[in-house]
Specification:
Layout (H helix, E strand, L loop, with lengths): L4 E2 L2 E7 L2 E7 L7 H6 L3 H8 L2 E4 L5 E4 L25 E9 L6 E4 L6 E2 L7 E6 L4 E5 L8 E10 L6 E6 L6 E5 L7 E9 L5 E9 L2 E3 L6 E4 L3 E6 H4 L7 E7 L4 E10 L2 E9 L5 E11 L11 E5 L5 E9 L2 E3 L6 E4 L4 E5 L6 E22 L13 E7 L10 E6 L6 E10 L11 E9 L5 E10 L3 E5 L8 E6 L5 E11 L9 E5 L2 E2 L1 E2 L3 E6 L4
Parallel strand pairs: 1-39, 2-40
Antiparallel strand pairs: 2-3, 4-40, 5-10, 6-9, 6-11, 7-8, 7-10, 11-12, 13-19, 14-18, 14-20, 15-16, 15-17, 15-19, 20-21, 22-28, 23-27, 23-28, 24-25, 24-26, 24-28, 28-29, 30-35, 30-38, 31-34, 31-36, 32-33, 32-35, 36-37
Length: about 525
């Protein structure tokens, strides 16, 4: 889902000579000079109703996750069993259109401003990223802001073997992350970043298969301005096969990501960056799940994790693939216990891309994971099949009467990228037969920020389709737009793939979620309120 987002509206009410400001999603400063405007002749206008006062939209930040790294103590110092035989390469890509000023990248503390390169279609950049970076973009009240940034860490061999990637996120006071494990052989590094000039007080709630996990005083900490704090969940909440974390912040908005990494004996079991998904809701969707035709009981088959944090209930799980809706036998209806992270197996599907939609009678959060096999380098001292994994966070499902507009930046390092699109029907009952199409307009930005090509893609309602981004010449970013369909919502994502050290094509995978286009408010509504 990447529906067009309105950044908020501010309302000012004049009550007995005092200005009372209410802001949703944006903040307007009201000074003495404004009060002066609303006296005398202006009072007549206020008496007549509401008037609009122009304000400058707030700057938009996108904070990128840190590069992946081995947990402390993971490398035992034995050259024969080196945990990091190759160097991890982390890259960043960013693209911004519709900003009033030239966007730039900074460090987390705001230092080291690096402006993007202005292009005909967008300002863009691409290159190495050895530390946390923050994308700054100033919205315009006249034009939609199309901003996206993403990082990818590629490790072709060793314990970190995998392609870990994530889109950069907007700071918030609440984040739900579903994914990762803290069992033996797994590590889960939770990073919390504070890009603001104020300290943030952070509290963690951790959930596992058996409910909330008691983590004591270590669940609360302070993140200083321009700093990040990394917490090892495998130490804080050990022996949890399935993890979910709620990060709450006060005093300042923060961003979060979770580095999930696993070892099966001596074999790499995959590394990825788990992104925060939607807040608890009755409906969520996950795009870009891949089946290789695994059996229903295959431990490497795709799986969906669900958490109902506050109350028990029931969830209906619906799967849409290349040939339409697929019956998920034995798993279409799932019982949810309050606070338990529940696994829903997605095995038994034919090979191909799928979209999963969950409708529950209680608010839920969730994510899906799929695994891809690879091969070991010919010099490896162990035998077996290594795997990589890709996590996709559950997102809110846009309303069928809303247009879709979003973009994904493409960090370098992957060998290829594939756009995955699905038309999710508004009516998803057992007896409902989806029909019709959603027409999506896909554009690719080249290395200079110019629109290289545009293509209309017909997405069947109740189906999932793919398009290589190379078909629209995308190098730095891909954008997707669709008009309101009325009977369906468009959801989409981008799947990255790369070869491993054994040159096994597409053995390393990751999924990037789109960043919605933002329409910033250009003013505040002002009205008179009689308090007595």
């Amino acid at each position: 889902m990447s529906r067009l987002v309105r950044a908020g509206r501010a309302t000012v009410a004049v009550v007995s000579g005092l200005a009372v400001v209410g802001v949703l999603g944006a903040t307007a400063a009201v000074g003495d000079q404004w009060v002066g405007r609303w006296t005398g002749a202006t009072q007549a206008a206020l008496d007549a109703g509401t008037r609009e006062v122009p304000v400058e939209p707030a700057e938009r930040l996108s904070v990128c996750p840190p590069p992946v790294r081995l947990p402390d103590g993971a490398d035992v110092g034995d050259e024969e069993f080196d945990a990091a035989p190759v160097r991890t390469q982390t890259t960043l890509g960013a693209a911004v259109g519709g900003a009033t000023d030239l966007p730039g990248l900074t460090a987390l503390d705001g230092s080291g401003d690096e402006p993007l390169t202005e292009g005909a279609g967008a300002a863009v950049t691409s290159g190495p990223a050895d530390e946390v970076r923050v994308l700054h973009a100033q919205p315009s009240a006249a034009d939609p802001l199309r901003t996206s940034a993403a990082v990818a860490s590629l490790t072709t061999a060793g314990d970190l073997r995998g392609l870990a990637a994530a889109s950069c996120a907007t700071p918030s006071t609440s984040h739900w992350l579903v994914g990762g494990s803290s069992e033996v052989g797994a590590s889960a590094l939770l990073a919390v970043q504070n890009p603001s000039p104020r300290p943030a007080s952070v509290a963690l709630e951790v959930f596992g298969p058996s409910g909330r996990v008691a983590v004591g005083g270590q669940s609360a900490f302070t993140v200083a301005p321009g700093e990040q704090v990394v917490t090892r969940l495998d130490s804080l909440a050990p022996e949890q096969r399935r993890l979910a974390v709620h990060v709450q912040a006060a005093g300042a908005r923060v961003t979060t990501s979770l580095q999930s990494q696993g070892i099966d004996g001596l074999l790499p079991a995959g590394t990825d960056l788990v992104q925060a998904g939607a807040e608890p809701a009755d409906t969520l969707s996950v795009s870009g799940v891949v089946s290789r035709g695994e059996a229903a009981d295959d431990e490497h088959a795709a799986t969906m994790w669900l958490l109902a944090p506050d109350g028990a209930g029931t969830a209906d799980v619906r799967v849409y693939g290349p040939d339409g809706r697929v019956t998920l036998r034995g798993a279409e209806r799932v019982a949810l216990a309050a606070g338990d992270v529940v696994g829903v197996p997605l095995g038994g599907l034919e090979p191909g891309p799928y979209t999963v939609v969950v409708d529950a009678d209680v608010p839920v959060v969730g994510a899906a994971r799929f695994a891809v096999p690879g091969a070991l380098d010919e010099d490896a001292v162990v035998d077996g099949t290594p795997y990589d994994v890709a996590w996709s966070a559950g997102r809110t499902l846009g309303a069928p009467d809303e247009p879709t507009s979003g973009q994904v930046a493409l960090p370098r390092g992957a060998d290829g990228a594939t756009l995955v699109l699905a038309g999710v029907p508004a009516d998803r009952g057992v007896d409902d037969a989806p029909s019709g199409d959603v027409i999506a307009t896909v554009r690719g930005l080249d290395q200079d920020g110019t629109v290289a090509a545009e293509q209309e893609v017909t997405v069947p309602v109740g189906g999932t389709v793919e398009l290589p981004v190379a078909d629209v010449g995308a190098v730095t970013a891909v954008t997707v737009e669709a008009a309101a369909a009325g009977d369906a919502a468009l959801v989409w994502s981008v799947r990255l793939a790369a070869a491993d050290a054994a040159q096994t094509a597409d053995a390393l995978v990751a999924t990037l979620d789109p960043t919605p286009t933002v329409v910033a408010p250009g003013g505040v509504a002002v009205r008179r309120v009689d308090a007595w």
